[in-house]
Amino acid sequence: MKSPVFFIVCLAVAAVVFVFGLVLKNDYFFFAGYTVLQYVVLATGWNILGGYTGYVNFGSAAFFALGAYATVVLHKVLPLPVPLLMLVGGVVAGLVGLGMGYLTLRLRGAFFAIATLALAIVLQTLVVNWDFVGGSRGAYIIRPNTLDVAGLQIPYIEYLFGLMLVMAVVALTVARGIEHSRLGFGFATIRDDEQAAEACGVPTLRLKLYATTISGALMGMAGAPFPYYIGYLQPSSAFGLEYAVNSIAMPMIGGTTSWAGPLIGAVLLGSLQQIATVTISSAVNLLIVGLLLTGFVIIAPNGILGLVEKLRGRSGGSVRRAIADNTADPAPTQGAAR
Amino acid sequence: MGVSTELFVNAIIAGILLGGFYAAVTIGLSLSFGILDIVNIAHPAFIIVGSYIAYILNVSFGIDPIIASIVALPAFFALGMAVYQLYYSSFEKYGQEALRGLAFFFGLLFVTEVMLILVFGVDYRYVHASYIDTTLHFGFVDVPLRMLIPCIAALILVGLLILYLTRTFTGRAIMAVSQDQGALQLLAADPVKIKRIAFGLSIATASIAGALLIVIQPVEPSVGREYIGRIFAICVLGGLQSLPGTLIAAMLIGVMESMTATFYGPSWAPAVAFGFLLLTLALRPQGLFGR
Amino acid sequence: MTALLEVEGVGKRFGGFVALDGVNLTVARGERIGLIGPNGSGKSTLVNCICGTLHNETGTVRFEGKSLNGLASHQRTHRGIARSFQLPRPFVTMSVADNLRVPLLYAVHNRRGRHLTIAEADARCLELAQSVGLGAKANQSPKDLTQIEMRKLELARAMAAEPQLLIADESMAGLSDSEVGEIVELLIRLNESGITIIMIEHIMRAVMSFSQRLVVLDSGKKIADGKPEEVIRNPEVERAYLGQ
């Protein structure tokens, strides 16, 4: 299936979901759904770097918060419509991803992972000490109640939900497009054996920079509408630990080698957490996520997708399209290499 | 200006004492990450558990926290060995430690923190010991015992560990396993067993470090998070395979944090270590004393 | 005529340990060179410095007259140097054919200035696989290959980059006599089609039957360079192998 077709199919599915929400006439669907969709984008973005190239990012919260705080800054200086804010958030976060990648990607994956941790804390400290965005006290973002679209008054939460739906579709299309492209091939070689990839002619540093930039940008775009969603943005919520854990847990539980894994992980885990937070407590909810992550990593390292593939009898990992094969091996010809 | 000099000197002293303590906190990671190449980002979690155990023993039986941690040492050692065995059989054996091993330790860190919240709640916990409220005064220099005693204990811990690694057979096998596993096998020493012992040692130090932590400051479950970046910063700054390097880097960071807190305010202090880490990674990834 | 590869005064240290000490080597186009030396003599380090996996601290490596100093590994592959690794390093989440596809997509692409179509790439992957006898296993995972098949894959992947210079790093270790013969034949065939080859080996039988010229390293220095029959009779070479 070509990317444009995939995109349209997903948009159609998204439209169905949206209409379903309207029919339900329950605002909670949109509030909870927004969070789940946000995680779809975060998890998909994380996976482009973590799953496809094998470089773990512990600082997803930093990129998410960059998008959120870019919005806060613009809100005070030059209010823009939310879609534009998402673009800005994406650009800012993407640039930071690029910069950080440039500094640390020449080192081993472990150092990159640690650097991402450091980045999150440094950024949080900067924000906490920056009064313009409210410092540790936080910033209020007054969100309008409705949005005027061609005379129709749409409740704002439905507008945000719709935007995040589109964003999720975009993220999934981008991830799938990469996966099936020459770029994705290169990413996979980096994940499998970076030195061998270099020897095969893969420009590993350049590709890794692409990955960090795209990954960071997507996560920033997920964060950009957040201040409007939540109304009152504090550093502790923007940089919350749940973003770091979930953006790792969701792809790892869903399956890291494909675009579908983060989607499955986000929908399953996201919904589970929404239910748990309301019925049990948010601490237990996070405990469950942590236990699932640890458990899956030990027992089912290829996630749910991997388990499904095993059940279908295929060997783990993605063996790509088979080429038309000759069963008989002709005698090796002379001059096999030109 | 007299006041400034006093402040300056006291900040340095506090920094050195803090640095000594940081060395104890980090030395376990120097062992697991620096020497064994295991990215144990859950190390702070073990330290916090150590703090809580010291707290329980102190509150229930009135035992001095540092003594309590020594009592708990064998349990932590065994725990470390068990964790390594799990890590090895699930990831290291298959060469999967890059992504999955990291995720494993991250999950461990997370689960530990949340379990501590569920069991103990988010209130700060204190220990009681005779020296905690005493401060020695030398002229204008203040040396709180609750900083001095942990610093001394830390230096003893680090010293003992360095001696062990350089003077005993097992210790030297541990140093060797990081360099050449094949040679080790020729000496009829099982590399996996050696690494298990080493990791056990690494977690054992967390027991003591935890007790020192709760002597210095009250502890609640999320305190561990500040230490993740700090210990990696110190480890990387000192140079991954150099234990003395860790000690010096710890002192450096301790002093820098102390100065920042004194002159710019404590809300900036967390950024110091992490900022150093980013700088080191960008400019001199092998650290001060690394190869 | 400029030599294909010129190694001039190349040196490399690891901390206090000198792995390479001013090594000089010239390789003409079309030659078959054997590179031997006791363990630890620096053969793999030399290969790594030529291919860019490591960077030499002193000296210059020149390919087709142009210096390679500072260039990353992938850039050297684009220029026409390919290597196989001592321990095979296939991409394990891909099929055999896809392993061969990587150099096609990333090295050959750039050189031709246009992308191969999917059909062309498929055909080429199959051709390469068949040339080393892996045609039937083209769609299988490298995990399903035997030792010798993995080494053949390693060589085929290096060939996929369409190199002018191929460095085969101990591709025969642990293989049986007939398997060694197969690989030597393969390499000679490659050479006859125009590829310059440097073979690093411990198996003397293979080295002697393959090499037109033999180079010996010991403790980071080149101690012999000439006709194979003469080199092995060189007393210094004997001493290096038989020990002090």
What are the SSEs and their pairings?
The complex is a heterotrimer of chains A (338), B (291) and C (244).
Chain A: H1 3-24, H2 27-53, H3 60-77, H4 82-104, H5 109-128, E1 139-140, E2 146-149, E3 152-155, H6 156-179, H7 182-192, H8 194-199, H9 204-223, H10 226-230, E4 232-233, H11 235-238, H12 241-254, H13 260-279, H14 282-299, H15 303-311
Antiparallel strand pairs in A: 1-4, 2-3
Helix pairs in contact in A: 1-6, 2-6, 2-9, 2-12, 2-13, 3-4, 3-5, 3-9, 4-9, 7-9, 12-13, 12-14, 12-15, 13-14
Chain B: H1 2-35, H2 43-61, H3 65-90, H4 97-120, E1 135-138, E2 141-144, H5 145-167, H6 169-177, H7 181-186, H8 191-216, H9 223-238, H10 243-264, H11 269-283
Antiparallel strand pairs in B: 1-2
Helix pairs in contact in B: 1-5, 1-8, 1-9, 1-10, 2-3, 2-4, 2-8, 2-9, 3-8, 5-6, 5-8, 6-8, 9-10, 9-11, 10-11
Chain C: E1 5-14, E2 17-27, E3 32-36, H1 43-51, E4 58-63, E5 66-67, H2 73-79, E6 81-84, H3 96-112, H4 118-131, H5 147-160, E7 165-169, H6 177-192, E8 196-200, H7 204-210, E9 213-218, E10 221-226, H8 228-233, H9 235-242
Question: Would you mind describing this structure in some detail?
Answer:
The complex is a heterotrimer of chains A (338), B (291) and C (244). Chain A is globular and about 60 Å long. Chain A is built from 15 helices and four strands. Chain A has one domain: ABC transporter involved in vitamin B12 uptake, BtuC, CATH 1.10.3470. The longest helix of chain A is centred in the N-terminal third of the chain and has 27 residues. Chain B is mainly α. Chain B has one domain. The longest helix of chain B has 34 residues. Chain B has a two-stranded antiparallel sheet. By secondary structure, chain C is α/β, with parallel strands linked by helices. Chain C has a six-stranded mixed β-sheet with strand order 6-7-8-3-9-10, with helices on both faces. A four-stranded antiparallel β-sheet of chain C has the order 2-1-4-5, with helices on one face. The radius of gyration of chain C is 18 Å and the shape is globular. The model of chain C has no long low-confidence stretch (mean pLDDT 89).
